[in-house]
Design goal:
Elements lengths: L19 E2 L11 E2 L3 H19 L6 H8 L3 H7 L3 H23 L6 H18 L1 H10 L7 H23 L6 H31 L5 H20 L11
Helix pairs in contact: 1-2, 1-4, 1-6, 2-3, 4-5, 4-7, 5-6, 5-8, 5-9, 7-8, 8-9
Keywords: DNA-binding
Protein name: TetR/AcrR family transcriptional regulator
């Protein structure tokens, strides 16, 4: 739905929309009110939607909830976003851009793989503490691509980044045959969901148990992932053939 307000500001506001007023100087007549700019209004609505989607989830959130949280009319909300689906897509795109930017910045090609994994874990802990509503939305919807493609893209980007960390040395090894490299690629694709699942679960658990020092929770996540990977890389497998 095309926004009819234009960038100059919101069109005639419906009841409940709060205009902004410039603060008058001492002794001066009150300054005329001015409407919130189009860009600032969209930021306000996206922030309100993020909070509602994070708390309620996509399916339980209604446009009425978002309008009430933003303290605007539902009519004004629909001037900016044509549907709940459109609003959710914009919110998730905002999250994907921010979080993938942080993850990309955390990884350094020259750093040891275990240190890059630790950096990714740290970036996730930072994001969860700094953006709790966005984190709640990610945890609720990351494995539910039916509510929009944005978070599915985030999952794919996370998987690609972790696979690159796992395979960096093997891809650079000239002695590794294409067939052997393909085996490693397939193994990495299986391991990646376990890795980011462990990371996300540990962060969410820590948020619910703040008495646990963050450093301890981060270290446990890294050790769980890295030591498990190391044993698999060295060929260790669980032998259950002797069990009844």
């Amino acid at each position: 739905m095309t926004d009819r307000t234009g960038d100059a500001g919101d069109a005639a506001a419906a009841p409940g929309d709060a205009p902004e007023a410039a603060a008058p100087s001492a002794g001066a007549a009150p300054a005329p009110t001015r409407r919130m700019s189009h860009a600032r209004r969209r930021e306000q609505l996206l922030a309100a939607a993020l909070g509602e989607f994070g708390r309620r989830g996509y399916h339980l959130t209604q446009m009425d909830h978002v309008a009430a949280a933003a303290r605007v009319s539902k009519a004004l909300l629909y001037q900016h976003f044509g549907s709940k689906e459109e609003l959710f897509v914009e919110v998730t795109e905002m999250i994907v851009t921010e979080l993938t930017g942080r993850l990309n910045a955390a990884v350094a090609p020259a750093r040891a793989s275990v240190d890059n994994i630790a950096a990714i874990v740290g970036a996730l802990f930072d994001y969860a503490t700094e953006e709790p509503d966005a984190w709640a939305l990610v945890i609720r919807h990351l494995d539910k691509p039916e509510v929009g493609p944005g978070l599915h893209e985030l999952r794919e980007r996370m998987g690609t980044a972790l696979a690159d960390i796992l395979l960096r040395r093997r891809r650079a090894d000239p002695a590794l045959s294409p067939a052997a490299l393909e085996v490693n690629e397939r193994r990495a694709r299986l391991l990646v969901p376990l890795m980011y699942g462990a990371m996300l679960s540990m962060v969410s658990w820590w948020l619910e148990h703040p008495d646990t020092p963050r450093e301890r929770a981060e270290r446990m996540a890294v050790e769980f992932i890295w030591l498990g990977l190391d044993r698999l890389r060295h060929g260790e497998r669980l032998d259950r053939s002797s069990k009844p």
